[in-house]
Design goal:
The protein is α/β, with parallel strands linked by helices. It is 39% helix and 13% strand. The protein starts with 14 loop residues before the first helix and ends with a strand.
Length: 405
């Protein structure tokens, strides 16, 4: 349609949402489909959090709040950063938005000029490059495969930086790979960034509490405090507290950037709904036992999926170190054919095959900038994951060698 903005031509809808919608469409036709496309905890939000939102609404906390968030919530977030991450943080360093994605969008809206580059180590969260392109920027996507543990190396970072570089995005732990950086690895990246003062750092730490095998979390801000004046730490309550639908993200960063982001927010969505902010306040200041409970379940599910995939010829899976995804290598399936004649030419074709012939919804690695892989969410029950991986195994077993056309 000619009235649409030209900037939209380069932007794709969310691949994970598209995969989930495709699974739902097939289910609506009567098929028994397991949708592992969306990264969403299957746990209920803890009752004390929902009760706090209800009580706030009954108290009349239903009006506009400051664009940056309520003073009480911003102070609680500052205390969280001090307590859990060892960061020097005050309420004025904090902003609250409708999810971590809006935090990132606000930051890019406030800083990107046409042609500015954002370094997005691949595999990356599907929305990063699309937001960059939507706001006139250029994604630069160094490939960080299994040989580096899906982590960006200092040499790769140095090679990716140009005079147009504006941002480096890090995701700790990574979606979709589950990769976790050590303190030393973050400091090595920081040493490169010291030589390039024009580069801002966005550290997306939304999965910080979902770590496996006894690992401890290190925030980029704690590893490289000398880069604080150009570092934005992004987080939220969605993953740690099973609150994806409550839409509360937050960040801490340098004062000029936080002020600019608040200006963007004030002229777009105004503020976050007040009862939702009351819920987030209860999450951060109330009982924290749910975090350990959820993490333990995610680790058990990780182990279940790793064992199941390891038994399927043609598939590989490096055990995720955190988050709740499995980024499954499918190079061994490329070139094969299904009994129905599907030729698996790439990981998009593999995901299509698994949806239509195994009835398991997945997201192809192409959406994350690194192929050939596909991602499944492990944030669902043991029984569902057992059935899903069994379906994948049965479907893969039907494949035969393809022809050479």
């Amino acid at each position: 349609m000619t009235y649409l903005a030209t900037r939209l031509a380069a932007v794709k809808p969310s691949a994970s949402m598209a995969a989930s919608m495709a699974a739902k469409a097939l289910r609506a036709k009567g098929h028994d489909v397991i949708d592992l496309g969306l990264g969403e905890p299957d746990f209920a939000t803890p009752p004390h959090i929902a009760d706090a939102a209800h009580a706030a609404a009954l108290r009349g906390e239903t009006l506009y709040t400051p664009a940056a968030g309520t003073p009480a919530l911003r102070e609680a977030i500052a205390e969280k950063f001090r307590r859990e991450n060892g960061l020097v943080c005050h309420a004025d360093d904090v902003t609250v938005a409708n999810g971590a994605k809006q935090i990132i969008f606000n930051a890019l809206m406030a800083t990107l000029n046409d042609g500015d580059e954002a370094i997005l180590p691949a595999p990356y969260f599907v929305s990063y490059p699309e937001m960059v392109k939507l706001l006139g920027g250029v994604p630069v996507t160094p490939a960080c495969g299994p040989e580096t543990g899906f982590r960006l190396t200092p040499a790769q970072l140095e090679a990716a930086i140009t005079p147009r570089s504006k941002w480096l995005f890090l995701n700790l732990p990574g979606n979709p790979s589950g990769a976790v950086y050590t303190m030393a690895e973050l400091q090595a990246l920081g040493a490169v960034l010291e030589r390039h003062p024009q580069v801002l750092i966005l550290s997306d730490e939304i999965y910080e509490h979902i770590l496996f095998d006894g690992r401890t979390f290190t925030s980029f801000g704690a590893a490289c405090p000398h880069l604080r004046d150009r570092t934005l730490i992004v987080n939220g309550v969605a993953k740690a507290y099973a609150m994806t639908g409550w839409r509360i993200g937050y960040a801490m960063g340098p004062a000029p950037l936080i002020r600019a982001m608040n200006t963007v927010q004030s002229q777009s969505v105004t503020s976050v709904a007040a009862p939702m902010q009351a819920a987030a306040l209860a999450a951060l200041t109330g009982p924290q036992d749910c975090i350990a409970t959820f993490r333990s379940a995610y680790e058990r599910r990780r182990d279940l999926v790793v064992a199941a995939i390891d038994a399927i010829p043609g598939l590989t899976l490096s055990p995720p170190e955190g988050a709740f995804y499995a980024y499954i290598g499918c190079a061994g399936l490329i070139g094969k054919r299904s009994p129905q004649g599907r030729h698996l030419t790439d990981d998009t074709a593999v995901a299509d095959f698994l949806l239509h012939e195994a009835h398991v919804g997945t997201v192809p690695g192409a959406a994350y900038g690194l192929s050939p892989f596909f991602r499944i969410s492990t944030a669902t029950s043991d029984a569902i994951l057992t059935e899903a991986t069994a379906r994948i195994a049965r479907a893969v077993a039907t494949l035969t060698a393809g022809d050479t056309e």
